[in-house]
Design goal:
Layout lengths: L3 H6 L15 E5 L6 H9 L18 E6 L2 E7 L6 H4 L2 H7 L1 H5 L3 E7 L6 H13 L3 E6 L4 H6 L11 E3 L8 H12 L12 E6 L6 H11 L1 E4 L10 E7 L2 E7 L10 H18 L2 E7 L6 H13 L2 E7 L10 H12 L8 E3 L8 H15 L5 H11 L15 E8 L4 E6 L7 H15 L7 E6 L2
Parallel strand pairs: 1-3, 1-4, 4-5, 5-6, 7-10, 7-11, 11-12, 12-13, 15-16
Antiparallel strand pairs: 2-3, 8-9, 9-10, 14-15
Helix pairs in contact: 10-11
The chain binds guanosine-5'-diphosphate (2 copies).
One guanosine-5'-diphosphate binds next to helix 2.
């Protein structure tokens, strides 16, 4: 069973994560070639594992932080510390990796279930016991029922916790991670949100980006402007609005004479992409007079790809002749163009008159808070009982997949794991159903959600 999304869940560390030395430390030990390095890479989520059968292969990166279900621990691969040709004498492992072992909260003793107990394993056990540390046995290379049964042989060493896994395929690793977290009581990994809400104002030329920034700054107290070093491309301006600190990232850039329309358009896309890398919230500005264009759609696509929270702001609303239905009509037209941004709210503004420009900041606060939101387990369990416990019509009835429970793996962007009774992927429409219920129940405003399913058989 390929569990590639395990890697997805432990990808890049969120900003502000605790330094590794404050985390529980879990140390992988075992004789050469049992799969320590493969397991390490699987748990860390590194795809390009450095593994090989040649003895003494150098592995220089053997420390890492694992995030799993919102918690962190440090993982150490002693196979990276002790060369294989020296590790065939167990005492060498314990001498050379003594620093890591002494600091360990838990030891993972990796064995090869296909080969069974070897004399080297017997010798290792004596040293493992001498550490006085808790030990989980990880019986690796379990890829068949017969090997799974054979793995039971390792129970005779008196450690009562054994996990059959296949580090290569990722089977059993979720159970192992759950047990590690239960045991170590790892701290919650909620990243402290950055102090400032970084808002990028993006859009094609002449939609009113500069005007909007100026309108906001005209209304608000400007604290610092502009920040040195960023003036060349995007201009950052710090401000405070209703007690919340913002950095506005202005992508309008320096106006140069003689720039052609085509050049300016290309430039606006490049600037948007750069700003999106640093932003929490993107305000995609559109021109109400001209209506949504292909270039708006292109920029919207990059905003979607970046994973930022997104607000759609239709500018120059002052120039539109309005009746009761005008806003609805314009919004429908806009949504036709950017169907894929259905979670982004639309707001009608005028940078010229200042109409609703501070509302943009209020919405940005709501979007930002949604982005960093963590749903407490109790609330998520109630949500599950109410909305997910019974199968829905949106599931194909021929092969109903049952969801056992749901958990939030991380924030930024909020990511949820549905544990199911099947290795089959959940149907797209069901994922949509879950997404919509999550949005309604927990105000995931203007923010993309990631929903993955994982078999828990
Ligand atoms: P280490 O020396 O203990 O770090 O072991 P490695 O991670 O370098 O793995 C040794 C060999 O076992 C490599 O050829 C891996 O591809 C293979 N291996 C590791 N894990 C598994 C597994 O779960 N199943 C199978 N079939 N082979 C594995
Ligand atoms: P940018 O290229 O996106 O930074 O756009 P600018 O802020 O330079 O605005 C382009 C043009 O649109 C200027 O002539 C502005 O005066 C005008 N403009 C911007 N916002 C508004 C608005 O809300 N209403 C009207 N009527 N004109 C606007």
């Amino acid at each position: 069973i390929p569990l590639d999304h395990l890697a997805d869940l432990v990808d890049e560390l969120p900003p502000g994560l605790q330094p590794p030395q404050l985390l529980p430390s879990v140390v992988i030990l075992g004789r050469p070639n049992v799969g320590k390095s493969t397991l390490f890479n699987k748990l860390i989520g590194r795809r390009q594992a450095i593994v090989g059968d040649e003895p003494g292969i150098t592995r220089d990166r053997h420390y890492g932080v694992v995030e799993w279900l919102g918690r962190n621990f440090e993982l150490v691969d002693t196979g990276g510390i002790v060369p294989d040709d020296e590790a065939i004498i167990p005492v060498n492992i314990f001498r050379q990796a003594s620093f890591a072992i002494e600091g360990a909260t838990l030891l993972l003793w990796v064995v090869d279930a296909r080969e069974g107990v070897t004399p080297l394993d017997e010798e290792l056990v004596r040293h493992l016991r001498a550490t006085g540390k808790p030990v989980f046995i990880v019986a690796n290379k379990v890829e068949s029922e017969s090997v799974r049964a054979a793995a039971g042989e390792f129970y005779r060493f008196g450690f009562d916790t054994l996990f059959p896994v296949s580090a290569e395929h990722g089977t059993g690793t979720a159970e192992l991670l759950d047990a590690i977290l239960d045991f170590t009581q790892a701290p919650v990994a909620a990243p402290p949100p950055p102090e400032r809400i970084r808002v990028a104002v993006i859009g094609r030329p002449n939609v009113g980006k500069s005007s909007l920034i100026n309108a906001i700054l005209g209304e608000e107290r400007v604290i610092v402007s502009p920040i040195a070093g960023t003036t060349r491309d995007a201009i950052d301006t710090d401000l405070v609005h209703n007690g919340r600190a913002f950095t506005l990232i202005d992508t309008a850039g320096i106006r140069r004479k003689g720039r052609t329309t085509a050049m300016a358009e290309k430039f606006s896309v490049i600037m948007a992409r750069k700003a999106l890398e640093r932003a929490d919230v993107a305000v995609l500005l559109l021109d109400a007079v001209e209506g949504p264009t292909h270039l708006d759609e292109v920029i919207a696509g990059y905003a979607l790809e970046s994973g930022t929270s997104i607000l759609l702001a239709l500018n120059k609303w002052d120039t539109i002749e309005k009746d009761a239905n005008t806003a609805k009509l314009y919004e429908r037209q806009l949504r036709e163009r950017v169907k894929f941004l259905d979670y982004a709210p639309a707001v009608f503004i005028s940078a010229l008159t200042g109409q609703r420009v501070t509302r943009v900041l209020d919405l940005a606060v709501r979007a930002y808070d949604a982005r960093y939101r963590r749903i407490p387990t109790g609330e998520l369990n109630r949500f599950f009982t109410e909305h997910l416990a019974t199968p829905r019509a949106t599931m194909p009835t021929s092969t109903p997949v049952k969801v056992h429970y749901v958990t939030q793996a991380r924030s930024v962007p909020p990511t949820f794991v549905l544990f199911t009774n099947s290795t089959k992927k959940l149907h797209f429409s069901y994922i949509r159903y879950v997404e919509n219920r999550l949005r309604e129940n927990f105000d995931f405003f203007a923010t993309p959600l990631r929903i993955v399913s994982r078999p828990r058989l």
